[in-house]
Fold:
Amino acid sequence: MSKTLREAYGESLLKYGRDNERVFVLDADVSNSTRSIVFGKECPERFINVGIAEANMVGVAAGLASVGFIPFVNTFAVFLSSIGLLGARTFSSYSKLNIKFMGGYGGLSDSFDGPTHQSLEDVAIMRTLPNFQVFVASDEYQVDWLVKNAIEVEGPMYIRLSREATRTIYTPGTLFETGKGKILREGKDATIIANGAMVQFALDAAEILAQKGISAGVVDMFCVKPIDKELILDCASKTGAIVTVEEHSIIGGLGGAVAEVLAASNVKAIQEFVGVNDRHAECGPYSALLKKYGLDAEAIAAATERAISRK
Structure:
């Protein structure tokens, strides 16, 4: 396993923000959790802890962005996409202010803080906002690019991070591109499209299927908006079966985005959805939650077999 995504984020934020006087970092009293504290300790003059006041945090960020700074706002994904939503919609979506929304502890990764802290709808909410780009980080090297890209590219972004460590998928210096998925494994029978922590389990599922003589491709769709329509349609036309895998509700997130692309095309393909099925999540050990809600490698492999059987 690599370092946790939040640790990678804290290091990258300091790496790219330390010498860039335009970068400001704000947190809602959880900087030790989000790891924005790494930047705060080194650059206290450009770090603001607003307290448990997520809506106010976005307002302060809007003021900074309006005079040319690049504010990164940090808190748990569930609160950033709910309490912080009005500011995100008014100041960044409508007014196009250059605020970077960093949603920590995404999905089921906030295992023990209570069901209210599990974030299973944030991607769906944030991708509906005009002018926003939406990303879900898969490993530490992708996090590094996401932070660098957020500083370099003008415009509002939502980036979802996990509390958990993920297996290293990429290598240092891997090139990423907004709106372009990454093919991690070729396949001819089905394509598994995943993002975030689910990418590692999608790769494991492909190995399970290979042992049964089933060829499954794997795509990391780390950029949910704008989504890589060309890649989705190419995979669908080649394999005829798409399985979307997300640590998120099956309503409105990655699966919904892929379904929208397929529905608007002339490509005929089956789609299976792997995600949390229209419910709030319980608390417990992360691995146990993934198994309970059908997000582990075995569940992904089973969904892929279902998709293939429906062709």
